[in-house]
Amino acid sequence: MKKPELNSDLVRMRPLDTVDIPAVQRLAAAEEIARNTFVPHPYPPDGAEEFVQHAREGWRKDEAYVFAIMEKASEEFAGCMGIHPEPAHHRAVVGYWIGLPFWGRGLATAALRLIIQFGFETLQLNRIAAGHFPQNPASGRVMQKANMRYEGTLRGSLLHRDEYRDEIRYAILRAEFEASKAPAKKTKETAED
């Protein structure tokens, strides 16, 4: 697949590349990132290089698509977001992290909206899901703002740092994505106003 660039007012997303290794190494090392993701902590000295090489291999094999999230205002690397398809079922799971200096700026929501669009329009998916730990409600708000719907809590479904954790799941279907893009229909009353 040709490697696309995705753009919004807040972020520019491009496939993760070797130029991102220093920023990944610096930002992913924060304990706050590891607390809510599967990023290892302490972050190994060669962790970013391995992660980027694995991401590049995913693109090469058309198995996973990991993007660098660049804050448009500063052109700084802010985090990563990946979409991992299951082609047999036309579905995918999204995972992401944003570096601490970029929290609270709306970058994750902007990136998730772009990756959902990429999933439906480019990968031709029918369903895109994501999840978060209950201790990270901000991630759930990101999913809600990207029009994903709450589907439930999977109790004790993830093993995170030797502890079973719940996962709160959200998803969006192609039909919901298409409906959100359609212009609002005028009602008779609205048309007469």
Would you give an account of this structure?
This protein has one domain (6-184): Gcn5-related N-acetyltransferase (GNAT) (Aminopeptidase). It is built from 7 helices and 8 strands. The protein has helices spanning 21-28, 31-36, 47-60, 107-121, 137-145, 174-181, 188-192, and strands at residues 6-7, 11-15, 65-71, 76-86, 91-98, 127-132, 149-160, 163-173. A hairpin with a 4-residue loop joins strand 4 and strand 5 (91-98). Mean pLDDT is 93; it is low at 189-193.
Structure in a nutshell:
This protein has 193 residues and is an alpha+beta fold. It has helices spanning 21-28, 31-36, 47-60, 107-121, 137-145, 174-181, 188-192, and strands at 6-7, 11-15, 65-71, 76-86, 91-98, 127-132, 149-160, 163-173.
Strand order of the largest sheet: 1-2-3-4-5-6-8-7
As for the number of domains, it is 1
What is the second-level CATH architecture? 3-Layer(aba) Sandwich
CATH class: Alpha Beta
Terminal Cα span: 49 Å
How many H/I helical runs? 7
Number-wise, the strands total 8
- Helix/strand-derived class? alpha+beta
User: How many strands, what sense, and barrel or not for the largest sheet?
Assistant: 8 strands, mixed
- Helical coverage, percent range: 25-40%
Mean pLDDT: 93
In the predicted model, the low-confidence regions spanning at least 5 consecutive residues are 189-193
What proportion strand? 25-35%
3D shape: globular
**CATH fourth-tier homologous superfamily:** Gcn5-related N-acetyltransferase (GNAT)
CATH topology: Aminopeptidase
- Please trace the helix and strand order, writing H or E for each element: EEHHHEEEHEHEEHH
- Radius of gyration from CA coordinates: 17 Å
